[in-house]
Design goal:
The protein is an all-alpha fold. The protein is about 75% helix and about 0% strand. It has nine helices and no strands. It has helices at about 5-25, 25-35, 35-45, 45-65, 75-95, 95-105, 115-130, 140-160, 165-180.
């Protein structure tokens, strides 16, 4: 990819993150990239195509993390912990990408092919945990929705300036996900007759 095209995509990420898909203009993207609007049209047909390329980068990076095989055998819970930590770190390193991803999850209607691929990959990992007996039997789709809710809450808190590190967030999220939120039942000594 050319340096100009790459700088346009990075500028578009920043503008889309700040203004959203509909609020972003080609002119503002060009100013942010330090080029003319005509330079953008040399590489992209429209703002919509540029948005699609930006979102494709997000999904490509997410799928690369999900497809990456661990070089050693770990429990499904530890594999899930590793995947989530890498996703969190990806968003911490690129806050524009995090903002676009958050907006995409909330604002884009329907299920894109990419979103379906991510969900299917996560469902397969969770199904493996159910099959191995590590996780309680349930519909893996419900587990993915639960994880998605945790992930989105962390992402929004991070974007709002709360300072929970990715490592702390993963541990807290995994603790609630794996162990639930109910306190252990209180036991009382048996009464003697």
């Amino acid at each position: 990819m050319s340096n100009r095209k790459d700088s346009i995509i990075k500028a578009a990420q920043k503008v889309f993150a700040k203004k959203g898909r509909s609020g972003a203009t080609t002119g503002e993207i060009a100013r942010t990239a330090g080029c003319s609007a005509s330079a953008i049209y040399k590489h992209f047909e429209s703002k919509e195509q540029l948005y699609e390329v930006t979102m494709q980068r997000y999904f490509d990076e997410t799928m690369a993390i999900l497809d990456d095989e661990l070089p050693f055998k770990v429990s499904v819970a530890d594999h899930l912990r590793w995947v989530i930590l890498r996703l969190f770190k990806m968003f911490v390193q690129d806050s524009a990408l995090a903002r676009i991803a958050a907006a995409y999850q909330l604002m884009e209607p329907g299920d894109s092919c990419q979103r379906l691929q991510v969900r299917t990959k996560l469902e397969a990992l969770l199904a493996e945990g159910i099959e191995s007996g590590e996780f309680r039997p349930a519909d893996p789709r419900l587990y993915v929705m639960t994880l998605g809710g945790f992930f989105h809450a962390w992402l929004m808190a991070t974007l709002d300036g709360e300072s929970l590190s990715p490592e702390q967030a993963v541990e807290a999220m995994m603790d609630v996900f794996l162990n639930g939120v109910l306190a252990a039942p209180k036991t009382t000594p048996a009464e003697h007759p």
